[in-house]
Write a structure and sequence with these properties.
39% helix, 294 residues
Length: 294
């Protein structure tokens, strides 16, 4: 999400997905009724819900009024929350979506021929972080065919506009999986790592050079502090204590510098899905990515 329109679209899709009744839907304004389980995920009032459930009270569902423009006024609505990137409410919506979408299983509905067969794929979206004194994050989807082991990159982009449901169509069959999820996931990781190895890693060499220069400056600074040993106004015991203090501080700052500036790549799965697709739906194969970079 990068724009106000992206935030609004995400919020509307979220409330539709969790079956939260939309009471008012206007440009830059959304009012929804929260089912109890959704209310628990989006609001920080655990003690309230403990009390309600302990006493068996039948309380009405909460109503959430969200604006996507600051200082928006809506007649008859007193409490309106402004939702934007980094806001508390949007962060709670994202957390809930991540929790609920961590693993799903869906079946293609449209474009499936009568008597056709759906093949299972294990999809995972990976967050790939290129980290040095700067940081760049990429979200990339990969999927492996659980029947024949083929791996496709940018899988989500190929199926994003396809209609899916949690039950297969009545007129199709599903092909059994030949690969287990652990083996399939290992193949995904191997493909991601192979793609990363094929990248231009000049950024990492530049980061290493920058780190070396920073470490040299740090060493020069602490070497200058060692001149305290030439100060005849201090006893040998005082000099030893200061030297030990400087040495400990130097090690701490070196470790912090390496943690902050050393180049590295981290790969973390964001979510998983078992997706049943018709064989003719997918066309592209995995190849060295062009857009992954620092």
């Amino acid at each position: 999400m990068e724009t106000n329109a992206d935030v609004q679209d995400f919020c509307r899709r979220y409330f539709t997905a969790v079956d939260a009744p939309v009471l008012v839907d206007q440009p830059d304004f959304l009012q929804v009724e929260l089912p109890r389980e959704i209310d628990k995920e989006l609001t920080d009032r655990p003690y309230y819900w403990m009390y309600v459930e302990a006493t068996g009270q039948d309380v009405p569902n909460s109503v959430l009024s969200l604006s996507f423009q600051p200082d928006l006024q809506v007649e008859g609505v007193e409490k309106i929350e402004f939702v934007t990137l980094g806001s508390f409410r949007l962060n709670k919506l994202i957390e809930s979506a991540q929790k609920r979408g961590r693993f799903v299983q869906v079946y293609q509905q449209s474009g499936v021929l009568t008597g056709g067969t759906l093949t299972p794929w294990l999809l995972s979206t990976f967050k790939i972080s290129f980290v040095a004194d700067r940081r760049r994050d990429e979200m990339v989807s990969y999927a492996v065919n659980l029947h024949d082991g083929r791996v496709l990159r940018d899988f989500y982009e190929q199926v994003a506009d396809v209609a899916f449901a949690d039950q297969p169509p009545a007129h199709v069959q599903t092909r059994p999986a030949a690969l287990t999820e652990p083996i399939a996931y290992q193949r995904l990781r191997e493909q991601v790592e192979a793609d990363l190895r094929a990248l231009d890693h000049t950024w990492a060499l530049d980061a290493e050079y920058h780190l070396e220069r920073e470490m040299e400056q740090l060493e020069t600074y602490y070497q200058s502090l060692g001149l305290v040993n030439d100060d005849t106004a201090h006893t040998d015991d005082e000099k030893a204590k200061k030297a030990a203090l400087y040495a400990a501080e130097r090690e701490l700052r070196l470790a912090e510098l390496k943690w902050r500036c050393a180049p590295r790549i981290t790969v973390a799965p964001f979510h998983f899905a078992r997706i049943y697709c018709a064989d003719g739906l997918l066309t592209r194969t995995a190849e060295t990515p062009k857009r992954l970079s620092m």
